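Re: that backbone. Tokens:
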């Protein structure tokens, strides 16, 4: 589906005949048209996986980490997946990318170069997240420490810390891949940048802290890179801009400083994201009951699709959903039913031209990286009732959708 259709877009270029309209974007960057992703006039649907571990694993040459990355990409491509979401950061103690502000490990960067190169070979596009809200792999806490501060939420407000983050953004976007020779910002293998994995903050001033930070940082990304889409990294909680929507937040979670609607209305944000974790999000009582989980999943996705269709008017991508073997009552069959439920909602939206254009589960694991499993790992085991089979079916259903061509206006 991400393939070039040269003859087709040649014809469209003739038909449209307006050079401000860019039907035939031969550079291969995905754009948006309203609630749809578009490449070369074709709508793009996404079926993919998370694999946060790819950069550090590829950097671990001592234990053939690159072969592990290749295996995962090959297995993903074999079931028709076309997107992966990965970490483009590590300020932690273990195989750090950024050792201290502005001091990068060239070996770890070469690991990321390899992931980008190899994903390109397997026609899998990358959503690259630029920092973590949480402490795993460093995150906002480490940035704040670097500035001599102790309150993690100062990540979003302190000017010195914001400058550290901007420096990281610039370093990533202008990195020259040592294998392909391409600057990251010019590489169509990258689908989008994600500002931060799951931003949250304590905000007693009505969600303005994150709103301001997102606006400032998305604008900064766009000032360097006009090729790629940008998303925030949100889980999808509703906030004060539309209080009647907060009933959809799981188990009485307050907005946690975010606001799905107003955050995604920022013009520099190209598409919206949500995550789905019924096991950990719902109160114990409801989370152990399948019917309540199912009802939550349907309402949670449904509400966000409605908002993206009619208020935000941008595509919606489910960038994390998963079921962990560490929760009571887990079985592979239950996980597969959960995946199928999410996939069906995505497909129903996609086939009717709606805003929900894909899903990216948490998380793909090969046999070897499974040793570091977090309970959510999905192996591409072949067989009639496997998750791999479900994934392959979803890829093929989305690939077979047919719509009239859409144009996209070029970035400038
Ligand atoms: C960068 O980090 C490395 C590894 O800790 C260290 O050896 C090097 O001196 C640092 N460089 C700078 C400029 O801080
Ligand atoms: C958030 O607020 C709570 C309650 O006031 C406090 O306990 C917690 O330390 C705060 N966390 C951050 C990261 O500011
Ligand atoms: C992992 O590899 C071992 C040894 O090659 C094999 O016995 C096992 O079935 C594999 N597990 C999975 C989940 O693929
Ligand atoms: C696969 O699942 C179907 C429906 O749940 C069941 O009837 C069938 O026996 C399963 N097949 C295998 C090989 O487990
Ligand atoms: C989307 O595509 C339609 C049909 O090709 C076109 O008329 C419209 O201008 C496009 N809108 C945007 C925002 O690119």
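Recovered sequence:
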């Amino acid at each position: 589906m991400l393939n070039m259709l040269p003859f087709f877009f040649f014809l469209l270029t003739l038909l449209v005949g307006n050079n401000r309209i860019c039907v035939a974007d031969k550079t291969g960057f995905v754009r948006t048209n309203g609630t749809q992703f578009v490449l070369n006039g074709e709508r793009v649907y996404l079926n993919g996986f998370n694999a946060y571990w790819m950069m550090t694993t590829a950097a671990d040459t001592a234990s053939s980490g690159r072969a592990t990355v290749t295996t995962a990409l090959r297995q993903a491509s074999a079931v028709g997946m076309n997107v992966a979401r990965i970490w483009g950061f590590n300020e932690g103690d273990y195989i750090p990318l950024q050792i201290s502000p502005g001091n990068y490990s060239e070996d770890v960067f070469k690991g990321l170069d390899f992931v980008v190169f190899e994903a390109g070979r397997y026609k899998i596009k990358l959503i690259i997240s630029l920092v973590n809200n949480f402490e795993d792999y460093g995150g906002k806490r480490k940035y704040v420490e670097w500035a001599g501060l102790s309150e993690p939420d100062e990540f979003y407000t302190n000017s010195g810390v914001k400058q550290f983050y901007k420096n990281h953004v610039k370093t990533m976007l202008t990195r020259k891949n040592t294998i392909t020779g391409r600057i990251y910002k010019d590489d169509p293998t990258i689908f989008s940048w994600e500002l931060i994995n799951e931003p949250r903050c304590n905000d007693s001033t009505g969600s303005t802290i994150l709103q301001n930070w997102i606006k400032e940082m998305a604008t900064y990304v766009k000032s360097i890179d006009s090729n790629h889409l940008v998303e925030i990294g949100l889980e999808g909680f509703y906030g004060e801009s539309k209080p009647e929507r907060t009933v959809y937040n799981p188990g009485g979670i307050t907005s946690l400083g975010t606001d799905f609607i107003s955050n995604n209305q920022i013009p520099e944000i190209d598409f919206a994201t949500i995550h789905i974790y019924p096991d950990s999000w719902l109160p114990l009582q409801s989370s152990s009951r399948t019917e309540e989980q199912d009802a939550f999943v349907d309402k949670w996705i449904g509400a966000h699709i409605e908002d993206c269709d009619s208020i935000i008017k941008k595509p919606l991508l489910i960038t994390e959903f998963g079921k962990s073997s560490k929760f009571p009552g887990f079985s592979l069959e239950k996980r597969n039913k959960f995946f199928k439920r999410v996939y069906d909602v995505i497909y129903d939206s996609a086939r009717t031209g709606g805003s929900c254009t894909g899903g990216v589960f948490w998380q793909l694991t090969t046999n070897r990286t499974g040793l570091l499993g977090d309970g959510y790992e999905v192996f591409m085991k072949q067989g009639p009732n496997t998750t791999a089979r479900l994934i392959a079916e979803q890829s093929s259903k989305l690939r077979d959708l047919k719509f009239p061509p859409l144009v996209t206006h070029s970035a400038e």
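Residues 2-13+44-399 form a domain with the TIM Barrel fold (CATH 3.20.20.80). DSSP finds 13 helices and 15 strands in the chain.
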